[in-house]
Design a protein that fits this description.
Elements: H1 5-13, H2 15-19, E1 21-26, E2 29-44, E3 50-53, E4 57-67, E5 70-80, E6 89-100, E7 104-112, E8 136-145, E9 151-158, E10 173-184, E11 187-201, E12 206-220, E13 223-234, E14 260-273, E15 276-288, E16 294-309, E17 312-325, E18 333-345
Antiparallel strand pairs: 1-2, 2-3, 2-4, 2-18, 4-5, 5-6, 6-7, 7-8, 8-9, 9-10, 10-11, 11-12, 12-13, 13-14, 14-15, 15-16, 16-17, 17-18
């Protein structure tokens, strides 16, 4: 029996929750534990072949039913460093709040924002993605609505990590987003749009980084195509705070900072058998400094995965990224990456 891409996406997203083990369930209170091990063996330009931890985690979810569709919830997630196997751990998620089936979810703490839901074209495991929005924070008030005829809305406020008023600058952020999904038979359609504004600086100089991302996806049976456009821009030419894909200044060798970054991503994927899909992403980007020095990007990513079991997936993924400076005297940089990954869910 053929399955649509929508069905495969739902199955993949539900993997961790389906596998979650309930360790406590009494009088309306429930605690689940789940997680995943995510390893990557990767070779890239100017680096030795390395074995990396790409976000292995253990997650504890707690909820208590309050009645009439209302529940209290909380999550603690421990994630491992991606600098090396077993280097260190950190609390990547720590939040609590309320959920109402007919209204939505309101949570407070260290968590993702609605901005993390916006990108649609990134079908890769590691190398794709152009979303420039604020996607997470340590102190976030997050609201995401229930589904209303295919639409979902979200809003976030991110507090300054430094609560003191020494500098009298509130380095806060806010994020707004809207999502739409519609399925008619084997045809699926999705839209996503988001906006974020982030304040960065001190009493001497401050800047606002404003970003927006918009995307669309069309799927039919086992095939899908999606496009995202994203842009981030600062409102102060004197203080450059936007970094971009680890790019370094060709003269100094230090990490470069930019005034404006724009990127477009086209993603394609095809589920040719139930256990495996092939995918490709194409990225076009442009970054501009305060002095109108520009860097242009062309990126090409391709990969294939195979799901041995609902809990085990492996993949082969490679990409080529070419960065060309407007100044002909500056070298064109090429970065090639090839990796084999394994993810085990429990």
């Amino acid at each position: 029996m053929k399955k649509t891409l929508i069905a495969f996406a739902v199955s993949a997203l539900a993997t961790t929750s389906v596998n979650a083990a309930t360790i406590f369930d009494k009088e309306g209170t429930k605690v689940d534990v789940s997680g995943s091990v995510r390893l990557l063996l990767q070779r890239e330009t100017n680096h030795r072949t390395d074995l990396k931890d790409k976000g292995s985690r253990i997650t504890f979810d707690a909820s208590h039913q309050l009645g009439d569709g209302l529940s209290a919830l909380g999550q603690v997630e421990v994630r491992f460093s991606d600098k090396g196997i077993g280097d260190k751990t950190n609390i990547s998620r720590l939040f609590a709040g309320f959920n109402h089936d007919a209204v939505g979810k309101l949570t407070f703490g260290k968590q993702l924002t609605i901005g993390d839901d916006i990108g649609l074209s990134d079908y890769t495991y590691n190398l794709g993605g152009v979303n420039q929005l604020v996607t997470e924070g340590d102190k976030v008030i997050h609201f995401k609505s229930a589904d209303f005829a295919g639409f979902r809305f979200g809003a976030d406020y991110v507090f300054d990590e430094d609560a003191s008023k020494v500098d009298n600058i509130n380095n806060n952020a806010y994020v707004l987003g809207v999502l739409y999904n519609r399925t008619v038979g084997d045809l699926g359609f999705a839209l996503a749009a988001g906006y974020s504004s982030k304040q960065v600086g001190d009493t001497k100089l401050s800047v606002k980084e404003k970003a927006w991302t918009v995307g669309g996806e069309l799927s039919y049976q086992n095939f899908a195509v999606a496009v995202d456009y994203s842009q981030v821009k600062s409102n102060n030419d004197e203080l450059l705070t936007i970094s971009w894909r680890g790019q370094k200044h060709p003269g100094t060798g230090d990490e470069d900072s930019f005034h404006k970054v724009r990127e477009v991503e086209l993603g394609l994927k095809y589920q040719f058998i139930p256990e495996s899909k092939i995918y490709a992403d194409f990225i076009w980007g442009k970054a501009v400094t305060a002095y109108d020095r520009t860097v242009r990007l062309r990126g090409y990513v391709a990969g294939v995965d195979y799901q041995f079991h609902k809990n085990v997936v492996t993949y082969l993924e490679g990409g080529v990224f070419r960065y060309k400076h407007d100044n002909d005297l500056d070298p064109t940089l090429r970065d090639k990456k090839l990796g084999v990954g394994l993810r085990v869910f429990f």
